[in-house]
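Progress report, Aim 2. The chain analyzed during this reporting quarter is listed below.
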Amino acid sequence: MAVKSFLDLYEKPPPEHPSWISGGVLPKNGLLLVGGYAKIGKTFLLLDAAHQLATGGCLWGLSDYRAEDPTTVLFLEQEVGEYELQRRVKLRYDALGAPPPGNLYYAAKDVRTGLILLDTITGKQALARLIDESKAKVVIIDPVSRFMLGNENDNTQVGNVIRGLDELMTQFGDLSIILSHHFGKPPKTVDGDESAFDPLSPYNFRGASKWFDAPDTLITMQRLRGRNDEWWRLTTGWRTRQAPEPEGNIKLVIRPGGLVERAVQRTSLLPG
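Predicted structure tokens for the chain:
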């Protein structure tokens, strides 16, 4: 950190593409948190995001949110393992009718090498090595709770994970990180009112408040029943700190194979 002039800042030309995903959704050196309850298809959503980042497409079919500079992506998972990840990748790209682009990389849970724990020195070093090997500019971590040794309910320990990610983004220029995280168990009522519960509130994230205090963008999800040839639908809520938020909620359709497209934009939280 250095002292600089406001006049220089005012006169400095802004960067042509300040974000990996336009609309301030994923700023360069930024953090995006995606989440919802378990088993809603977050991994397929993240695989689609990885593909669009690698190819310069629109995030989930949304023309306002395009990957402006196609880049190399590293997908990290420590939940389902390589076999299940391979099954999902094959479903997606067989449905797409094309192989994955060559600038998509992954590292999956491996009992031989152990877990990468981002609140440990060795874990941060391991992730730095993977970023250096892949030359990735966007890293997707799915789910982040599997990448920490400490208690996900403790703000200090979660803060250690976030600071470790900040250090990596400083070390690797323009690096951005996408995290997935689960919601906790939904309450039956809010202050005794069953209708007051917001299924897309960022306060639904499981554990410490630091999870939703730190990111530049939060995207929350609720699963809906699919129709006809759809696998399922999702209603999503967006909170962006570096750009105006979309009006209302955005509903996404997930087709067979995990291909994602936008359906409609709604102002109501009610499924439909």
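Residues 155-171 form the longest helix (17 residues). The first strand starts at residue 19 and ends at 21. These observations will guide the mutagenesis work planned for the next reporting period.
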